[in-house]
Amino acid sequence: MSQKSEYCLYYWPNLPGRGEFIRLALEYSGADYVDICRLPEKKADQTVSMQNILKDEAIFPVHFAPPILEHKGKYISQSACILHYLGSRLNLAGKSEEDQTVCLQFQLCIADLANETHNTHHPISTALYYEDQRKEAVDATTSFLTHRLDKWLSYFNKAYVLKRSHYLLGETVSYPDLSLFQAWHGLLYAFPKAMKLREGKFPQIESLVSKLLKDERLLQYWNSSRRIPFNTSGIFRYYKELDRSI
Ligand SMILES: N[C@@H](CCC(=O)N[C@@H](CS)C(=O)NCC(=O)O)C(=O)O
What we know:
CATH class of the largest domain: Mainly Alpha
Largest sheet: 4 strands, mixed
CATH topology of the largest domain: Glutathione S-transferase Yfyf (Class Pi), Chain A, domain 2
Strand order of the largest sheet: 2-1-3-4
Number of domains: 2
Bound molecules: glutathione
Number of helices: 9
Helix content: 40-55%
Mean pLDDT: 95
Structural class: alpha+beta
């Protein structure tokens, strides 16, 4: 165990990215955790320790990329898998196995949306800089906004319509609610013009977001310096040339 907190999150220190889906669940539930790469005293060293986990052949299973969660001496990666693991432990995945499966399915869809959004600014390769694929990024963004954004938002919205509730599982907040909240804000940040055109078109998502924005458990974190604002790193980035009225 790297430290004394119950959970330890390894993720890049300066971007919300996929780590934010995990942070939101940990924060909302008041879990005892440390965001290890953001510890002020050892930021650089801890990022190296994260990279060492990825290289360590003594760790099974092997891990491909952050976010990585450490709990009780074991490591877990893949954001949806981490949240599935945390969901029942943090009381954020309903009460039954069926609820847990619903949460995981929904979270995997959010992970797919995250990948597609990332592809808008990195359509050629994640190994290249944005600046090396700017032209293609405009085409990829046009296609995403034209063909995919409404399809995804309609899908998420429909789940809440069918449940007739503010929350995916009905009564209480589950981790995919928090992730959708984050994704919605990410889309508003990355594509303000396109999202403006969609104002009022996905009322259930908007109602989830406004409900959560009144929830003290979330607000304490949302307004704190622990939350990393969106920026031009990570999944949801703002680039003027990709901000299209489509
Ligand atoms: N499907 C994975 C994606 C993980 C991922 O792409 N992580 C990024 C940061 S958000 C990374 O550091 N990738 C390094 C790489 O792919 O080489 C998840 O949801 O956790």
